[in-house]
Design a protein that fits this description.
By secondary structure, this protein is of the alpha/beta class. Strands 1, 2, 3, 6, 8, 9 and 10 form a 7-stranded parallel sheet that branches. The protein has 3 domains: 3-109, Up-down Bundle (Four Helix Bundle (Hemerythrin (Met), subunit A)), CATH 1.20.120; 112-275 and 488-505, Rossmann fold (3-Layer(aba) Sandwich); 285-480, Glycogen Phosphorylase B (Rossmann fold), CATH 3.40.50. 45% of the residues lie in helices and 14% in strands. It has helices at 5-25, 31-58, 61-66, 69-86, 89-107, 129-137, 183-186, 212-218, 242-246, 255-259, 276-286, 311-334, 348-355, 360-372, 384-390, 401-408, 458-466, 471-480, 492-505; strands at residues 3-4, 111-117, 141-145, 150-154, 159-163, 190-193, 204-206, 221-224, 249-252, 270-272, 303-309, 338-344, 376-378, 393-396, 413-415, 439-440, 449-451. The protein is elongated and about 110 Å long. Helix 10 (255-259) links the parallel strand 9 and strand 10.
Length: 506
């Protein structure tokens, strides 16, 4: 028989309280006060007994009966009643011994651990998935995935629109409705979250019931796993967020990332174990994943390009960026040797509505143009890892978590300059640069990659890609990003599981 640690811990607390009350009774003379305490003790014992009866119906009845726990609780109630009538002190000692016996037996019951994952955006589930797989596979854990509701800002109405994405997760992930998973009752030993913002986000916010301050009231340990990956740091915009101070553990991708937290009080709670996002894409590549049927594409003799559009690029250069995307779409339509998979950031449309509402109509027209003209695959599914694994190269915004995914699987990266409109056909004295020569890293908090310029345009990059002329770039990329993350063999999830399960057992 196995019982959930949180339940067993709760029983232990309740039993210890009964012992304290019994000891208190010995020094009380007032009959009314004695009666009140005895009633309280009996009510607590009945609560424990009824709860155990519920568990007996679900697990091994004989195992509980062999421990004589129920029998001892019944004996306590009889002694409680007898003492209320006689006031014989020896009965109090027998009551205490009954509870101590129950407490001892409960401590011998093998424990399972209650673990809850609380994602809010299905597209960010990959930041938790490999950790979840390990806990879900463990006989020592009762593991639940509970998608939580969130709100999206709507500047047109000046209100927050309610959102819930419980229908967007992979079929192989069993989900629990948040209405059926009451944290205050469940009291999970571990809670995993990927959203660091609480109320401090202008675009989205999770339901206030799931702010970090509330989660801390109802869980044993709170674990934050960033929804993003980057060149290896905790963003300056994020390191002061309350969640980091409240988390019992913060999982980061590398020792370099951990060092960026050295001046903060949560530094010792930072674990440099990698990122589940890397696990997902690495394992998919090892499995040689193929394009999903719903894409309806044939890649024979073609290169697949993932086109990525980020929030920052749009906020900084909305109109220019959209014009550049139209240009990329035209290039794709003219070529027969590439396939474009366009994945806007999962929060892009919401961000446009909230922060650039003047562009929402034009943005919708851009999307419709892509779809109507069959430029490529418009991928809004929750799983970015699949698109990365299938693609041969990255083209898009100059800064994105997706770039890191391409880096760890050694696929070339080309970054569009969203602040300039560059057209190689408009320059008469143009000299095409070599890809290796435009491969660089502007500063420490940036990725390596090929950068767009008039001498090395997106068309030049596509030409080199199709001609398999990027080996030098891929080699340099591999060398330069050797320390990007820990456990780049796809074992981050396993390492996190091993560390945390050992921790909660202590």
């Amino acid at each position: 028989m196995i019982m959930v640690k949180a339940d067993l811990d709760n029983y232990s607390v309740m039993l210890k309280e009964i012992i304290k009350l019994c000891q208190k009774v010995k020094n009380i003379q007032e009959d009314d006060l004695i009666l009140q305490i005895l009633i309280k003790c009996q009510e607590t014992v009945i609560t424990i007994g009824e709860s155990l009866e519920d568990i007996i119906n679900k697990v091994d009845r004989q195992a509980i009966e062999n421990l004589h726990i129920i029998k001892r609780l019944e004996e306590f109630c009889e002694l409680d009643y007898e003492f209320s009538n006689s006031k014989e002190q020896v009965l109090v000692d027998k009551m205490i011994e009954c509870i101590k016996s129950v407490l001892k037996d409960i401590r011998t019951i093998p424990r399972t651990y209650r673990v809850a994952f609380l994602p809010y955006k299905a597209a960010m589930w990959d930041s938790l998935e490999s950790i979840w797989r390990e806990f879900a596979a463990s006989d020592e854990c009762e593991t639940s995935v509970v998608p939580i509701p969130y709100f999206e800002a709507n500047r047109k109405t000046n209100q927050w629109d309610t959102c819930y994405e419980g229908d967007k997760y992979p079929d192989y992930v069993p989900l629990v409705n948040f209405q059926d998973y009451l944290l205050g009752q469940k009291k999970p030993d571990l809670v995993f979250v990927h959203n660091p913002f609480d109320q401090f986000n202008n675009v989205t916010t999770v339901h206030p019931a799931y702010y970090s301050a509330e989660l801390k009231k109802s869980c044993g340990k709170l674990v934050y796993v960033p929804y993003y990956v980057n060149p290896g740091f905790i963003s300056d915009d994020y390191n002061e967020l309350p969640l980091l101070y409240r988390s019992d553990y913060i999982i980061v991708q590398s020792e370099k990332a951990k060092e960026t937290c050295k001046d903060f009080p949560y530094y010792d709670r930072v674990l440099a174990l990698g990122s589940p996002k890397f696990d997902k894409v690495i394992n998919l590549c090892n499995e040689k994943v193929t394009p999903p049927e719903e894409w309806n594409i044939n890649l024979d003799g073609k290169k697949c390009i993932l086109l990525n559009t980020t929030l920052t690029d749009f906020l900084e250069s909305g109109e220019l960026l959209m014009n550049k995307l139209y240009k990329v779409f035209e290039i794709a339509l003219d070529r027969k040797d590439i396939v474009i998979v366009w994945r806007p950031h999962p929060l892009l449309k919401g961000t446009v509505k909230a922060m650039r509402p003047q562009y929402i109509e034009k943005y919708d027209e851009l999307v419709q143009y892509f779809i109507d003209n069959k430029v490529g695959v418009y991928d809004t599914t929750a799983d970015v890892s699949r698109a990365v694994a299938v693609s041969d190269a990255y083209v898009g915004s100059h800064y994105s978590s997706i770039i890191a995914l391409f880096e760890v699987i050694n696929k070339p990266i080309f970054r569009i300059d969203s602040k300039k409109f560059l057209d190689r056909n408009s320059v008469t004295d143009r000299r095409k640069a070599d890809a290796v020569d435009v491969f660089n890293k502007p500063h420490d908090k940036d990725f390596f990659g090929c950068y767009e310029s008039i001498n090395y345009t997106v068309e030049d990059f596509l030409d080199d890609l199709v001609e398999d002329d990027l080996d030098g770039v891929i080699k340099k990329q591999k060398e330069k990003e050797a320390g990007l993350a820990a456990n780049l063999d796809g074992t981050c999830g396993k390492k996190v599981f091993q560390y945390l399960i050992n921790d909660i057992k202590q």
